[in-house]
Every structure is written in C-alpha cells, then in structure tokens.
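Appendix B, Record 12. Input sequence as logged:
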Amino acid sequence: MDKSEVKKMKILIMCGGRGKRLGTMTKKIPKPLVKIDNRTILDLKIEQYQYQGFRNFVFCIGYKGELIRKSIEKKSGIHAEFSDAGEKAGILARIFHAKQISSDQVLITYGDTFTDINLCELFFKHLKSGNEVTIVTAPIKNPFGLVEFNHDNKVISFKEKPILNYYIGYAIINKSALDLVPQKVIDMPDGKGLVTFFKILMGMELLGSYFHSGLQTTFNTKDELKKAKHKMIRFYTLPGNTSYEE
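Logged structural output:
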C-alpha cells in the first residue's frame, strides 16, 4: 500500500461527549467546538489532517450533534459522514456504531485532542506491525510524586513528578478487530469499553503502541484549556511546524 492509498483511509473523530468539567462553556456547544485563539479545535484538527492529504472523515456525534453537523457542512475539500449512537453511548459503542461506514483501517481521534503526528508514518507502522490496534502514547509529566510502599507501609520508592507514557486518544483500529469484542463490552459506559477492548487485545498480543514525542494537547477543565491555547498559539507561530516529508 502506497501513500495515496493510505490517504484514502477514514478518520473517525469522536465528537459525542458532554465535556461537563468545562462547566458553562459546554452548556450550549459540544467540547470540539470550544475555540482556541478564535478557531474551534475541531477546525484546527481537520485542517491539520487536510494538510497531510487526508480528506475522508466520519464524525461520531452525540451531545448537540446538530451543531457539529452545521459546523462541518460549511467546510470544503472533505468528504464527511456522520454516525450518531446517541448521547449516552460509550466511546467503544460509538466506534462500533460507525463500523459499517469505516474503512478497513481507521484512525480514531478524540475531538478535544490535537497533535502534530505524521499520520502516514503512523499508518505504515501499524500496517507493518501486524497488530489489530496501534495506540499512540506520549511522555507526560505526572504532577504528583509517585510513591510505592510495602506491606508494613514502609516507603520503598519515591519518584518526584516522573515522566510516564500515556495513551493520548489516537489509535489505528482494524475493522476486523471489532469482531473480537463481546457485546457486553461494547455496551460499557464512557471509556470503560474501550479500555477493556484494549486489554482483550493485549492478552492476545495484538495491541501495539506508537510513541509520539512531539506536540500533544487536550483539555478537560478550564485550566487545561488555558494551557492548550498557549501550546497551540506557540505551535502555529513557530516556523517549520506544518511540514511533513513526502
């Protein structure tokens, strides 16, 4: 498979959550339509994917999904489809609901997360690996000291704000992988089903990882949104940040 074929694959953008921790900001709009420097994070994500040559999108909507539709209808140069599993559906249920309109491999990405990942490189690494799913991880500094202790409550390890590898809401999923998931797992709320899905694949040695050390930002609270705005403004004002090798 060459790059032109890879770029025909679909990107599933998860846009169904309520974003309750942002308080009044998401009472009238869904979180992907929150603005960063006068542009929604959804706009910024789509433009980043378009810049890399990806045009086919599935928007997994839920909470205030009609506003997502209206926002996307204004865009040109993309092929957009929508999948609505309902406001109460968990992440895995939304992915499964979109299965019939998905490509054989799809990129799953959260609607409130932005990275500068080279998508072609990610796809090729996944295809070469033979895994059913490849999740993207990134180093993130833990804001707290990490403590370990024994059965006598004696501290045996203390790591001050360690840097750990976290899953950052991006994953390449083979459509065939969804056939391995029991319905009771698909029906789990929020992100529990997705985590259980990953654990099932991990036990089968079919879950891989892709390490990303570049820009990654997301937000669940107003404080995190402020930090995300700072990162994004810096990203777009520094030279050379939007180039990808062909």
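The two ends are 15 Å apart (CA to CA).
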